[in-house]
Design brief:
There is one protein chain. The protein has 390 residues and is α+β, with helices and mostly antiparallel strands. The protein is built from 11 helices and 15 strands. Strand 3 and strand 4 (65-70) form a beta hairpin. The protein is globular and about 70 Å long.
């Protein structure tokens, strides 16, 4: 009787080395984990050696069948991650050590919680976690990091020896609201008044909105959106991570997962926001503008998206990274996690001590935020419901 052979590990230099069907069978329906999204990043040049994101995707195979996969990149910087470890890199440098390259499992430029250890069972998930550490050791990387894993993967990574870091995002929860007014009715008087004032200011400025989905988004819309996106980055003296080729590729390959909100004034488009969605969740991602108008950002990025969620019955709106200003607009604090393994024992111990203190601070911060909930006590959404679909 033949003894079953363990899965064979292969490191892929890009998504072109695996078929979409094989990858998507494991990735599920979250758009950011799809073969199309990750391949678009690589094919457009937004991800690659020249950008400091070198694909090193870990895969496990039983013969020619893909049974597990981990999106993975070798990084020579910490840009585009939204879990900040610059202080760790500086500490390495002060002590004559090299922090880069490091290995990172994440969706580039996308702080969205979801599966990372893509597999059918926990045995293969554990194999992937250990394989990532071994791969980091084999290439001389200082560390392995996994950003925004879902709770199941976070537990597997912790059992494999990674340290867990806590963070905070702000999410909007749909409590079966029948309209935007019904949503506002659940809020306290002062917060409801503030939102109405912001929406009125936008309306009185003569700004109107189009919600474009799927194939309704044309090439000229992608060009306009990219110009807005680039302009906003430049105004903040930063370099855009993404380009029009990427946006057009995801528009072509993921039309059922894309929502573009375009703002117009006096017959001219002036701003746009790009969101992704599946059946349960809307993900607020990128925005930009060519003109300033009071409250335009809040209307384009938040209120229009909330109206879309209510109309579609979408239960969760992830508004992106950070932003206490979202609390007053109905977004509640949610804990996120990341997982970290450092090869250097002394630094690993120091980071572990830091993360223990930081976790206490995060828990206290979330508690304080919840004390200032924008909702009436009797109507506050239940933040403990697991509605993320992850």
């Amino acid at each position: 009787m033949n003894t079953p052979q363990p899965p064979q590990l292969r490191v892929l230099a890009g998504m072109h080395e695996v078929t979409p069907a094989a990858w998507n069978r494991l990735a599920g329906n979250q758009p950011f984990l799809s073969h199309a999204f990750l391949h678009a990043l690589e094919a457009s040049g937004c991800v690659g050696d020249e950008t400091g994101w070198l694909p090193q995707h870990l895969t496990l195979w039983e013969g020619e069948r893909l049974v597990a996969a981990l999106p993975l990149y070798a990084k020579n910087h910490s840009y585009g991650e939204y879990v900040f470890d610059w202080a760790w890199a500086e500490a390495y440098q002060r002590n004559g050590l090299t922090y880069y390259p490091k290995l990172l499992s994440a969706i580039p430029f996308t702080p969205v919680t979801g599966p990372r250890l893509l597999a059918e069972n926990d045995v293969h998930r554990a194999l992937l976690a250990h394989a990532a550490i071994e791969h980091a050791q084999s290439i001389g990387a200082s560390s392995f990091h996994c950003l925004f894993p879902d709770p199941q993967d976070s537990s597997v990574l912790q059992n494999a020896g990674l340290m867990i870091r806590r963070g905070v995002q702000f999410h909007w929860l749909n409590q079966n609201f029948t309209s935007f007014d019904a949503y506002l009715a659940a809020m306290s008087h002062d917060k409801r008044k503030k939102i109405k004032q912001e929406r009125r200011r936008v309306s009185e400025a003569g700004i109107s909105f189009r919600q474009l989905t799927g194939n309704d988004i044309k090439a000229e819309d992608w060009a306009f959106f990219t110009g807005c996106y680039d302009n906003t980055y430049l105004q903040h003296r930063s370099t855009p991570y993404l380009n029009v080729d990427f946006f057009q590729r995801v528009g072509d390959t993921l039309p059922d997962n894309v929502l573009m909100i375009v703002a117009s004034q006096a017959g001219h488009d002036i701003a746009a926001a790009l969101n992704f969605h599946d059946d349960t969740t809307l993900y607020g991602r990128y925005w930009g503008t060519h003109a300033y108008s009071p409250a335009l950002h809040f209307e384009t990025c938040y209120y229009q998206a909330i109206e879309f969620c209510i109309a579609r019955g979408i239960r969760l709106f992830e508004g992106g990274a950070q932003g206490e200003h979202k609390l007053a607009r109905g977004f509640l604090p949610m804990e996120t996690t990341s997982a970290h393994w450092l090869a250097h024992p002394r630094f690993a111990q120091a980071v572990e001590t830091f993360l223990e203190r930081e976790a206490l601070g995060v828990a206290h911060y979330i508690g304080e935020l919840n004390e200032h909930s924008p909702f009436k006590n009797t109507c506050a959404p239940n933040t403990h419901d697991d509605i993320s679909g992850s």
